[in-house]
Amino acid sequence: MRDRLDISMRANHVFFAVLMGIGLICVALAVAMNDTFYLRLGTEALILGGLALSVDILLGFGGLLSLGQALYFGIGAYVSALVLREVPSFWLAMAAATGVTLLAGIIGGLIANRVRGVYFALITFGMAQVVAKVVYNTRELGASDGLIGVPVLEIPLGVITVSAGDPLAFFLLTLSVLTILYAAVAYLFTTPFGRVVIALKANEKRVPFLGYNTWGPRMVCYVVAALVAGITGALYPMLRGFVSPELMFFASSGNAVIMVVLGGVGTLIGALYGAVLLTFLKSVVGSYTEHHLIAIGVIFIFAILFMPKGIIGVAKPSLERRLIRFDEQTDAARIKATGERA
Amino acid sequence: MLSIKDLHSHYGLSHVIQGISLEVAAGEILGVFGRNGVGKTTLLKNIAGWVKPSSGSIELNGQAIGGIEPDAINRAGLAIVPEDRRIFPGLTVQENLELGLLGLKGAKPASKLNPVLERFPRLAERAKQSATTLSGGEQQMLSLARIMVAEPRVVLIDEPSEGLAPMIVAEIFAIVREMRDAGCAVVLVEQNIHEALAVCDRFVLIERGAVVFAGAAEDDAARAALLEKLAV
Q1: CA distance B79 to chain A (A)
Q2: Model ipTM?
Q3: What is the pTM of this model?
C-alpha cells in the first residue's frame, strides 16, 4: 500500500513540472515571435503566484483564511523599491525585503495568532488596511502615487549577469525563485512540523492533548507565509519599476484568495495555476472591456459551485491513480527481475 | 498516581462538577459511571486541562496539574482518549501514531512505534493509508495506540465502546486491561456498564456532579447496588 500523502505530494510535483513545461514552451513561442508583452505578463503571473502560494500555506495547510496577505507582499515590494532606489543591488534588496518581512510577519503573527476563524480573517484584513492607509498617506513613501524610478537592475548570478530589463531573463529568474519557494514549502509540509500543522487544521482542539503547544506551529506557519509573500513581492518593483499602495489593498489580498480557490486549496501548486489563469484572464478580458471584474466574479462563482476543489482538485485524483498504477507496475517488474536473478 | 480533591467546575452559571474527590493508583482501572449529563465527560475534561476547574485540586504524582495547559498536562504523563476519537484525517495511520511521540520533551525514537504496531497488526497493515479509510473500530484502536506510543502514566478514556461491534469492544477492553497491567492508572468513563465492570478494579457513580456511590468491582453487593441504582 502506497503512502497517500506521498502520492498526493508527488502529484503536486507532476503538476508543477507540467506548469513549468507549459511556461517554457510559451516562452519559446514568445521569443520566436519577438513578443515581450506576454513574457512580462507571465512574469507578473508568477510573482502573484507567490502571493497566492502564501495564502495557500495559511488556508490550505493552516486552515487560516487571511484577507490581508497582500500586506507582506506590499512590504516586500516597498522595501525592495526603497533599497533599489538607493543601492541598485538585487541581493541587498532581496535580503532587506526578507528581513523586514520576517519582522513584520512576527509582529503580525503575534497579533493575528490570538484568534481563529472569521476573527482571524478580519484582523488580517484590518492590519493590511491600516498599513496600506499609512503608506497611502506618507509622503516619504510616495503617498498615493507610490514609489517610482526603480532602476533597471543588472543581477549578478555567479558566472552570469542578467538584466531585469530583459523580459526572458527576468522571467526565468522569477521562475527559479518560485521553484525554490515551492520546493521549500512542499518540503516543509513533509516534515514532522508539517504534520503538526496539518493535524492542527484537522483538529486544533485535539493536538494539545498529544503534548503540543499549538501556538508555535501556527506562528511558524504564519511567518513562513509572510516570508513567501514578501520575497515574491520584492521582485515586483524589479519588473514594474514602481510600487503603489494598491499592492496592499484588499483587492490584492482578495485576488490571491480567488487564485487559490480557482487552482485548488491545499495543493500549493493550485495557487500557481490560479495565479496564471487569473492574471491572463484579467489581461485578456480587460483588453475588451473595463468591466472585466464581472467576468472574474462569474468565474469565481462558477468555480465555487462546480469545482470547489479547484482545477488541481478536479485533475488530481486521476493523476494519483495513474501514479499508484505506475508504482505497482514498477514494483511488480522489480520483484519479477529479482526472482529471475535468484 | 492521580488524586482529585473537592473539584468544582462550571459551564457559565451551571455548576456541573460539585465537589468530586477521587484517587486512582498505578496499575488500577477506575470506572466512572452515571447517566447522561451528570458530568462524567466534564470531569475528564477538567483533569486533562480542556476545561479549567473553578476550585479544588488535581495532582499527578504529587504535581498539581489543575488548570494548567493541556499540552503541559500531557507532557507530565497524562493522556486522554476522547469520546469522538479525533483522529487526524489529513494524515496516514503511521503519521497519526508518530504525532503521539513528537510532542514529548526529548522526543522518543521512532522505534517506539514498533511494539505498538506489533500489538495492533491491523494498524500496521494500514500504516500508509489515510486514517479516514479506517473503520470505526480501527479508528478507536488508532486513538488508543496513539497515546500508548507515548507511554503515559495516567490514561483517561471516554466511552471507548460507543458505536462499536461487540467483538471490537472486547478487543478495546483487552487493550485497556493491558494498559493497567503495564502499570498505567486508567480512568474509564463508560455507558456499557456490564462490560466495563468486567475490567474495572473500582468504580464510582456520579449523580448531579457528585460521587454518590463507590465500590470495588469484585464486590458482588457493590456491583448489585450499582446496577440497581442505574436500573440496568
Answers
A1: 7
A2: 0.72
A3: 0.82
